[in-house]
Amino acid sequence: MKKLLTKWHRILAPRATILVSTVNREGVSNAAPFSFVMPVSIDPPLIAFASVEARHTLKNIRATGEFVVNIPSVDLLRETWICGKSFPEGVSEIEQAGLTAVPSEKVRSPRIKECLANLECLLEAEYQAGDHWIVVGRIAAIGVREGLFDGEAFDLVTAQPLMHVSSKDFASLGEVMTYTE
Ligand SMILES: Cc1cc2nc3c(=O)[nH]c(=O)nc-3n(C[C@H](O)[C@H](O)[C@H](O)COP(=O)(O)O)c2cc1C
Q1: Residues enclosing ligand 1, CB less than 6 A?
Q2: Residue 99 near residue 79, CB atoms below 8 Å
Q3: What is the CATH code for 15-171?
Q4: Which residues pair with 136 in a beta bridge?
Q5: Residue having the nearest C-alpha atom to atom 15 of ligand 1
Q6: Taking all residues of the chain, what is their mean pLDDT, rounded to a whole number?
Q7: Of 6, 36, 49, 72, which has the fewest CB atoms closer than 10 Å, so is most exposed?
Q8: Quick check: 104 and 71 in contact, CB under 8 A?
Q9: Whose Cα sits closest to atom 11 in ligand 1?
Q10: pTM, whole model, 2 decimals?
Q11: 17-48 pLDDT, tens per residue?
């Protein structure tokens, strides 16, 4: 039982992978992948992800009260992995990964240009849950790559978002099924 519980979250997979971009007090950008992520409210629009205490991302969010959720596609696997490496504080993973930081509309944290979508967030709440902190953001502005989202359906098959399985394993979307009676 104990052995099964150490990696239990690997059963709940694949999970959406996001790149959270932030800035520190000096304005230096940071980006890191997270896959403990979920929508929590539609109106108001709230999104949550879970972070361990040690992350620079969490420190920056606490310092600035904002962040951007960027959604990478499968062709950004390498860049996403580089962003997940441990760099000294103040080193921008966005630059290290060869990604492009572009200005956001409502927050100082940059959007990552190459991503499928960018959700600009203001920190709404933070809760401790076991060994992680649940960070809840209120979406203040959204950018989506042209042609992927009409406000109803997101074109997942074209978008091919990057899904996280565990450790170095990732997945892509095979098929979208529609239930009919
Ligand atoms: C695909 C992937 C998903 C990850 N998901 C999480 C997560 O949900 N929560 C977390 O605390 N760390 C997660 N990590 C680890 C952080 O991304 C990693 O420790 C990163 O270096 C943190 O960067 P930062 O200190 O600049 O915030 C994940 C790493 C990868 C590669």
Answers
A1: 17, 30, 32-36, 50-52, 55-57, 81, 84-86, 164
A2: yes
A3: 2.30.110.10
A4: 48, 125
A5: 84
A6: 96
A7: 6
A8: no
A9: 51
A10: 0.97
A11: 999 999 999 999 999 999 999 999 999 999 99
